[in-house]
Design a protein that fits this description.
The chain has 199 residues and is of the alpha/beta class. The protein is 28% helix and 21% strand.
Amino acid sequence: MGLLGSARQVAEQLTGTRILRRVPRGLDVFDDLATSLPAHRVELIMDVGANIGQSAAEYVSRFPTARVHCFEPVAETFRELVVRTGSMPNVHCHRVALADEPGEGCVTTAGGSDSVLNHLVTGSPGAPADTGTEAVPRGTIDQFCQDQGISCVSYLKIDTGWRTGRAARGGTTPPRRIDRPAGGRSRHAPRERPTRTVP
């Protein structure tokens, strides 16, 4: 063991931590993409549950030539998303709730512009008394891709809280290809494996 290895070992013992050479897989999606798929070209990103554009800003800084489609159904949050991404010409914002079927829906508005507390209401709107609701258009991933002429999605982020599965079920038919899906509540913890082609 060299001097550097000995110093690392002493530091680990003194601090009670482990020093790693690189970030473990699953903690940083961008590091995962660079490490696991170094030749992967990110050309189109779908940010479902975009909130106020935190992820969109990161996508633009990491993939400056990629087109980014942001989906945020809550009106107040959507307005802030549009303002925050207004100087990013490759970011396109859509006020729609992506779900398992198109139509009209209702979303809770408990969190104001912090829509992490909001969700699409199923069936009859039974929202708690202290939350508001608003009508929103619903669409599916498949419908959006067909309408926009999109045949390949380089990266799909779905962050719709506890209703993530409803948005994912709306994207199941050809001719769609998703090179790198990610799900769950954080862009740092993708829960699905890379997929090459969706038949």
